[in-house]
TrEMBL record:
Keywords: ATP-binding, Chaperone, Coiled coil, Cytoplasm, Nucleotide-binding, Stress response. The lineage of its organism: Bacteria, Pseudomonadati, Bacteroidota, Flavobacteriia, Flavobacteriales. Residues 207-244 are annotated as: Disordered. ATP binds at E31, N35, D76, M81, S96, G97, T167, R338. GO terms for molecular function: ATP binding; ATP hydrolysis activity; ATP-dependent protein folding chaperone; unfolded protein binding. InterPro entries: HATPase_C_sf, HATPase_dom, Heat_shock_protein_90_CS, HSP90_C, Hsp90_fam, Hsp90_N, Ribosomal_Su5_D2-typ_SF. It comes from the Bacteria. Residues 24-177 form the Histidine kinase/HSP90-like ATPase domain. SMART domains: HATPase_c (SM00387). This is Chaperone protein HtpG. It comes from Flagellimonas lutimaris. Residues 209-220 have a biased composition (Basic and acidic residues).
């Protein structure tokens, strides 16, 4: 038996590995199975080009847990190693970057992203093991080797009687890591990290029910047999060509990724590029809610079918993190920090490619089946609107397929909307005014008032609409979005002609003073306006600018500092041409005038959805008194 010392000058390398990476100690299994997979795929390549004179066969990787002896075994049937290769790859190469590792990470936190970066993948075993053994036999005609190390720089190496080609790693689990001796824990990790590895992974056996033999009675139990429990799918859908997959197969793969998701995806996008980087994957558009946060972290990132993370910010554009699916790229390191990803040039190219691919798919869906696209709009609009806000290149492409629905259920592209409303909804300053509602029920009276003028009213109700409108107004000339309850209908789109008031300036001022006295505790700004006599006598509006800035502040970004915490601001508009307003002015007793003002105000508040609780109860009681 030979012994030796691993070529590293710092004796506490193993404690450092454990210390720095302890928060990620479960990745030891991912690393060791990745190594076993690499060894198997290398053998496949060598046999295919005739360099390895052995039969490749149908190799698998096996994981076994021996709870009594506190051991985990990872066994492959891959390329194996000779004694010289063990010395080179285990004792030397794996530690070639140890000095750099220590210098760079001695003051680093736990998210340093060390494993893999310095060839330390195999040594991640020492995060959970107090001793590690390697028993390996090369595909070459050379003796098998047994290597052993107890977590110090000392190792031993001796011949082994192993007959089969491949490598077995034996981990002697440390006392502080006995959770990894539980079958359920190992199965959880295998499913998490290795669910789609390209080589079958066996973990125990399972019972399989066989067809009943001919002539068996109905109540005879079906025969069973024990078979290998293969926990992974070595040929997931994203590794295949789109032409080889049916819609049903795409849906089946979605169910495989998300077994607890019962709704079908709306559609999918298959990514497949080999220049200037390698990337494959499938993204699915699920049905989305208006909650921007609950949806995230549903895309899984793989490197050569090895799970890396489901936090894909920096790789996938932020607006697409609400989608689901898989991205696989060998160009992304297995272990990297988020800051590394955000700064990496290749990653930025990947992000741009994904953005372009998604935009192209949406363009195609819109052109090929607009009716279906319109039906799905409410389920996908949050992603598209978010993308238009955050990615200028996506904004340019989305301008052709982004839809603007009306309160009547019609859908327009911006170009179509502009053509439809230009004649009727251009104001005196030659600005196109787009009217919209955010709640069809709550703003019903305002919508109806606008429709009587022949105006088209959009229904824009996603949480980021205020931000999107701001972007549209700055990117297009002479455009303004105004919510239908921002002013009375004659002021929403200001034309040259103005109505003449039936009340004199003196009468208006007198009535305004009395209304201000009645409403002084309610915070309304009183405006006396000459409108059509058929318009409501009292109308409550919210100024567009202040309300929009407040909404933008509440949904993050934009707006003015602190505006999200400001109280709501309302205007109370009095139609000086309405018969009821004249009646209030001419009522002799102050008590009755106040009663009429309160009743009219409450009707306006009721129309706006602002009358609630005790005030609503008092309004109902007062109304009954008035009709006795």
């Amino acid at each position: 038996m030979a012994t030796g010392k691993i070529n590293v000058s710092v004796e506490n390398i193993f404690p450092l590995i454990k210390k720095f990476l302890y928060s990620d100690h479960e990745i030891f299994l991912r690393e060791l199975i990745s190594n076993a997979t690499d060894a198997t795929l290398k053998l496949k390549h060598l046999t295919s080009i005739g360099e390895a004179k052995v039969e490749y066969g149908n190799p698998m990787i096996e994981v076994k847990v021996d709870k009594d002896k506190k051991r985990i075994h990872i066994i492959d049937q891959g390329i194996g190693m000779t004694e010289e290769e063990v010395k080179k790859y285990i004792n030397e190469v794996a530690f070639s970057g140890a000095e750099e590792f220590l210098d760079k990470y001695k003051d680093a936190g736990k998210d340093a992203g060390i494993i893999g970066h310095f060839g330390l993948g195999f040594y991640s075993a020492f995060m959970v093991a107090e001793k590690v053994e390697i028993i390996t036999k090369s595909h070459k005609d050379e003796p098998a080797v047994h290597w052993s190390c107890d977590g110090s720089p000392e190792f031993s190496i001796e011949p082994s009687d192993k007959k089969e080609r491949g490598t077995e790693i034996i981990l002697h689990i440390a006392e502080d890591s006995t959770e990894f001796l539980e079958d359920a824990k190992i199965r959880e990790l295998l499913v998490k990290y290795n669910k789609f590895m390209p080589i079958p992974i066996k973990f125990g056996t399972k019972t399989e029910t066989l067809p009943k033999p001919e002539g068996a009675k109905e109540d005879d139990p079906a025969p069973t047999q024990e078979v290998d429990d293969i926990i992974n799918n070595p040929n997931p859908a994203w590794t295949k060509q789109p032409n080889d997959l049916s819609d049903e197969e795409y849906k089946n793969f979605y169910r495989e990724l998300y077994p607890m998701q019962f709704e079908e995806p709306l559609f999918h996008i298959h990514l497949n590029v080999d220049y200037p980087f390698n990337l494959t994957g499938i993204l699915y558009f699920p049905k989305l809610t208006n909650d921007l946060n609950i949806q995230k972290d549903k895309i899984q990132l793989y490197q050569n079918q090895v799970f890396v993370t489901d936090n894909v910010e920096g790789i996938v554009p932020e607006f697409l993190t609400m989608l689901k699916g898989v991205i696989d790229s060998p160009d992304i390191p297995l272990n990297v920090s988020r800051s590394y990803l955000q700064a990496d040039g290749a990653v930025k190219k990947i992000s741009s490619y994904i953005t372009r691919k998604v935009a192209d798919k949406l363009t195609s869906l819109f052109k090929n089946n607009r009716e279906d696209f319109e039906q799905k709009w409410n389920d996908i609009k949050v992603v598209i609107e978010y993308g238009m806000l955050s990615e200028d290149k996506f904004f340019e492409k989305a301008d052709k397929f982004a839809l603007y629905p009306s309160v009547d259920g019609d859908f327009y592209t911006f170009e179509e909307l502009e053509a439809k409303i230009k004649d009727n909804q251009t104001d005196k300053d030659d600005k196109l005014v787009v009217l919209y509602a955010s709640d069809k029920e709550a703003q019903h009276s305002y919508i109806e008032a606008a429709k009587t003028k022949g105006y088209e009213v959009l229904l824009l109700d996603s949480p980021i609409v205020p931000h999107l409108m701001q972007k549209l107004e700055t990117s297009k000339e002479n455009l303004s979005f105004v919510r239908v309850d921002a002013d009375h209908v004659d002021n929403l789109i200001k034309k040259e002609d103005t109505a003449i008031s039936k009340l004199s300036e003196e009468e208006k001022e007198k009535l305004k003073t009395e209304i201000e006295e009645v409403t002084k505790d309610k915070g309304y700004t009183i405006q006396m306006e000459a409108m059509e006599s058929s318009a409501s006598p009292f109308i409550i509006t919210e100024p567009e600018f202040m309300r929009r800035m407040k909404e933008m502040q509440q949904t993050g970004g934009g707006g003015m500092f602190g505006m999200g915490n400001m109280p709501d601001m309302y205007n109370l508009i009095i139609n000086t041409n309405h018969e009821l307003v004249s009646e209030i002015l001419n009522t002799k007793t102050a008590k009755k005038r106040q009663r009429l003002i309160n009743q009219s105000l409450d009707l306006a508040r009721l129309s706006k959805g602002l009358l609630k609780g005790e005030e609503l109860t008092n309004f109902i009681a007062r109304s009954y008194d008035m009709i006795k």
